[in-house]
Automatic annotation (TrEMBL):
Family: Belongs to the WD repeat coronin family.
Protein name (Swiss-Prot/TrEMBL): Coronin
Gene that this polypeptide is encoded by: Coro2b
InterPro entries for this protein: Coronin (IPR015505), WD40/YVTN_repeat-like_dom_sf (IPR015943), WD40_repeat_CS (IPR019775), WD40_repeat_dom_sf (IPR036322), WD40_rpt (IPR001680)
Keywords of the record: Coiled coil, Repeat, WD repeat
An example Gene Ontology molecular-function term: actin filament binding
Renumbered ranges of WD repeats: 19-61, 69-111, 112-153
Length: 416
């Protein structure tokens, strides 16, 4: 994947430096919400990797990750950072498992094993105490992540769910999917009762996915269609009809995917409330799309910029794993973004050769099922052999140093 830090716009040169350490296709990437130069990525090579982007951006291709995480037996399709806790990362693989990684030690500490098919989407509530998932088995689940216990489950036969998002602190979920007539559809759910959706609404008859994005500060929902250039806006209310359609952004250039700028990166002087980064594959470009509230006044608009989750974590990994929940630490955007966080990522030194979670060694005797999996296993073994050779070489050097010191001690006049 490509990391592009330059401020100027325009087409980048073909040989621009890339992050290219995976041995398979990269399926998902996420920026760390608390350390702005740390990225998590996952791949078809069954690994999750943590990358540290140098100050000022890449100067050359980056092939070495600061941390490589192996625990899934199949390719890894999703990664998500915990919203309030530093160094807690979730990964979902095609082995139907969700692993919770404590990056302070570089190991998985919990495993959620309640899914019967590929996990399509993960979303956290505001304080990260609940995890909502959609799955290829056509079920929507609300899970307590530390115990792996399923609190609520909906079998969505009439509304085949694809994506899910928690709607802030409203205790509601929104899903996008496909109706029984193969039309694109959204549904609103009560997180404490998934027996029936509160409302269902058909969007259109197109076939691409609908990506939902929710802004808790303005109570705005954005729906972006994969394969088309439309982004629809809705306002979320606490009473029926809950969803109020506002308007739609249209573009002839279809989007394959969308990224979002964090709140502290928005231009508050222009009343920018949301910014997408649209991947347009036909033209080979990434196009920024800003959502701006038209205001004549040049003063700070308190109503559209309330206190928002900031860049300081509310919990340590040990606190969260012990059962503590805390709301995000809020920040004001009035003075503009200033980098106040002094957190740095320190990769742990890993000595363990096995990955044991819930008494199960996740990497023991997992046979490859396809030629691609065999290749990925080969590459992973090659990485392990290279690491062991480096470790052996360092120990040889240390051994020679100790032998030399011992020889010097024996030959010293004092010993004679």
């Amino acid at each position: 994947f490509l990391v592009y830090f330059k401020l100027q716009t325009g087409r980048i040169e073909p040989n621009y430096p890339k992050v290219c350490g995976h041995q398979g296709n990269v399926l998902d990437i996420k920026w760390n919400p608390f350390i702005e130069n740390i990225i998590a990525s996952c791949s078809e090579d069954t690994s999750v990797r943590i990358w540290e982007i140098p100050e000022g951006g890449l100067k050359r291709n980056m092939t070495e990750a600061v941390l490589e995480l192996y625990g899934h037996s199949r390719r890894v399709g999703l990664v998500e950072w915990h919203p309030t806790t530093n160094n807690i990362l979730f990964s979902a693989g095609y082995d139907y498992k969700v692993l919770i990684w404590n990056l302070d030690i570089g190991e998985p500490v919990k495993m959620i094993d309640c899914h019967t098919d590929v996990i399509l989407c993960m979303s956290f509530n505001t304080d990260g105490s609940l995890l909502a998932t959609t799955c290829k088995d056509k079920k929507l689940r609300v899970v307590e992540p530390r115990s792996g216990r399923v609190l609520q489950e909906a079998s969505c036969k009439n509304h085949r769910v694809n994506r899910v998002v928690f709607l802030g602190s409203t205790k509601r979920l929104l899903t996008t999917g496909v109706s029984r007539w193969n039309t694109r559809q959204i549904a609103l759910w009560d997180q404490e009762d998934l027996s029936m959706p509160l409302i269902e609404e058909e969007i259109d008859g197109l076939s691409g996915l609908l990506f939902p994005f929710y802004d808790a500060d303005t109570h705005m929902l954005y729906l972006a269609g994969k394969g088309d250039g439309n982004i629809r806006y809705y306002e979320i209310g606490s009473e029926k009809p809950y969803l109020s359609y506002l308007m739609e952004f249209r573009s002839p250039a279809p989007q394959k995917g969308l990224g979002v700028m964090p709140k502290h990166g928005l231009d508050v002087s222009a009343c920018e409330v949301f910014r997408f980064y649209k991947l347009v594959t036909l033209k080979g470009l990434i196009e920024p799309i800003s959502m701006i509230v038209p205001r004549r006044s040049e003063t700070y608009q308190e109503d559209i910029y309330p206190m928002t989750p900031g860049t300081e974590p509310a919990l340590t990994p040990d606190e969260w794993l012990s059962g503590v929940n805390r709301d995000p630490i809020l920040m004001s955007l009035k003075e503009g973004y200033k980098r106040t966080s002094k957190i740095v990522f320190k990769a742990p030194v890993k000595e363990k050769r096995s990955v044991v979670v819930n008494g199960i060694d996740l990497l023991e005797n997992v046979p490859p099922r396809t030629e691609n999996e065999l290749l990925r296993m080969f590459f992973r073994q090659q990485d392990e052999i290279r690491r062991l050779k480096d470790e052996l070489s360092q120990k040889d050097i240390r051994l020679r140093q100790l032998q030399l010191e011992l020889k010097n001690l024996r030959n010293s006049p004092k010993n004679n």
